[in-house]
Amino acid sequence: MPTVSAHVAHTLVRHIDHVFGVMGNGNAHFLDALERSTDVAFTAVRHEAGGVVAADAYHRAGGGLAAATATYGAGFTNTLTALAEAVQAHVPLILVVGDEPTSGPRPWDVDQIALASAVGARTYTVGRADAAATTVIAIEHALSYRVPTVLAIPYDVAKLDAGPVPPAPQPTLPAPLAPSPFARAAIGEVADLLAHAERPFLLAGRGAWVAGAGGALGRLADATGAVTASTALGRGIFPRGEFDLGVTGGFGAEPAMELIRTADVAVVFGAGLNQFTMRFGELFAPGTHVVQVDTAPAATHPHVGRYVRGDAAVVAAALADELAGAAPSGWRESIDIAALRTYEAGDPLAPDGRLDPRSVAARIGRLLPEDRVVVSDGGHFIGWANMYWPVASPDRMLMVGTAYQSIGLGFPSVPGAALAQPDAVVVLTTGDGGGLMALADLESAVRVAAGRGLAVVWNDAAYGAEVNLYGLQGLAREPMLIPEVDFAGLARSVGAEGVVVRSLDDLDALEAWAARPASDRPFLLLDCRISGDVVAPYQQEIIRVNS
Ligand SMILES: Cc1ncc(C[n+]2csc(CCOP(=O)(O)OP(=O)(O)O)c2C)c(N)n1
Ligand SMILES: [Mg+2]
Questions:
Q1: Which numbered ligand comes closest to the C-alpha of 80?
Q2: What angle do CA 30, 15, 236 make, to 5 degrees?
Q3: How many A from CA of 519 to the centre of ligand 1?
Q4: CB atoms < 10 A from the CB of 408, how many?
Q5: Which residues keep their CB under 5 angstroms from ion ligand 2?
Q6: Mutual orientation of helices 508-515 and 357-367 as an angle, nearest 10°?
């Protein structure tokens, strides 16, 4: 007869088709039920943080809700950094874990509910009689609040006979937030502002993508003749790339950022306007009317002059409808947008004889397959992909770790993205520091993505971000340095092709790899020996603000 663990597995798979994790005592029966009696694919990762990261990346890459699983105690505590990232980034997923027996904690148990709560995640604990219903409640919670949710199976309950798996209701989800009568009046005024704007500008973030606002935003841009741009997490949301300035903030091209300061009306959709997007307050000029549309209770930046609370897609569509007959400003057609989006080409080598990361990024950008998903770890190097590699839509550039400002979540993002987009090439961009931290899941990345996987390691033999922020302040450098690690060799040891890149010509290996069919090539890791002396503009901005 099915166990409680089987009830969880069977109910989960009605809503989820991928589970990532590491096995142990606490989830053995759950995994057994999953493997033996469901069609769901279980993908093994090598560190429990990687299970949560993979489920997170799966969702961000457009695959829908996924689950991670870990055993109790040490397995669970290994997930906490990744769980905190998913909380802060508003990514729904289900984390199925073992937990202490109902009779009370054993010497090796910890208070898992308190630990999950401390990073912002709620736990639902299944009992013998309610496992199916509790599983649905956890799914409903994850999707409604857009948060990771823990589903705990007490050790003594896991293998209890629970009888036939009962039907469970479908999760019910909230409708998109409709504007209140006050917000509707504000929409009329914003339409009026846009109708009379000479230099209208639209900015969209990940919230707009999650709301499915891309099409409505495209209509609004056409109706107003607005120039557009996005946040780092919203890149590619506007359908007409030829009128888009790319990313705002420190990753933005300087001439493009200067143009934004000349806008007379700026409307922001689904973007939290953090200090990076806002260039530490410099993004807009004081004369610009800044309107923000979001579901947050109130405006999230002091430069916002008018706030409209509502779902980005609903409000964008209402504005586009109101402006359908109006004459567009003509602003976007009067500007050579492509010329404003350019970045410095860099030199082949920096003065210290190591690679200039700008020219490496530019050449890799030209060689990357069009159908790709880029996943990024955190560190100084994040500027290079964000500046030099174009993004087709927000589900094709993921930065798992940046919301919680964690490094070391790069390699396990690869299997999640690879399974969410089964035809795309998954490109990891990582530092040597974050790469070493995530190393356990180099094996998972190579195994799962295989010939569809590419890793670019920006190997500066340092925690470069720390050198740039604290080395420059004169702090002791030794803790900021890393011996030069042979990542190409590490990659080969798990079955990948590893290439040490010391000159731009060494990137011919990428050209040759890209020309082969994915089924006929292994995962490729490019170990790029870059100079730490070329500091990305976004980091220079942070250095300026901090000093
Ligand atoms: C888990 C975690 N530990 C430490 C840090 C502090 N930290 C931020 S960036 C960074 C350096 C990352 O080094 P690397 O991956 O080599 O990238 P680089 O900065 O050299 O480009 C460190 C240690 C962090 N953000 N997260
Ligand atoms: Mg480094």
A1: 1
A2: 120
A3: 34
A4: 27
A5: 431-433, 460, 462, 464
A6: 20
pLDDT score for 537: 95
Residue 459 alpha carbon to ligand 2 centre in Å: 5
By DSSP bridging, strand 524-529 and strand 93-99 are unpaired
Q: Which residue has 């974050």 as its token pair? A: 434
Give the SS3 label for residue 432.
helix
Gap between the Cα atoms of 359 and 344, Å rounded: 9
| The dihedral sign for the CA sequence 509, 510, 511, 517 | positive
pTM of the full structure: 0.97
Q: Which residue has the tokens 């663990």?
A: 5
DSSP assignment of 115-171 equals HHHHTT-EEEE--TTTHHHHHHHHHHHHHHHT-EEEEEEETTTTT-B--SPPP-PPP
Amino acid, single-letter form, for residue 400: V
Segment 22-37 shows an average pLDDT of: 97
Instruction: Give the span between the Cα atoms of 463 and 477, in whole angstroms.
Output: 10
List the alpha helices (DSSP H) in 226-283. Answer: 254-260
Kindly state the average pLDDT of the residues 430-448.
98
- Two tokens at 314? 């609903």
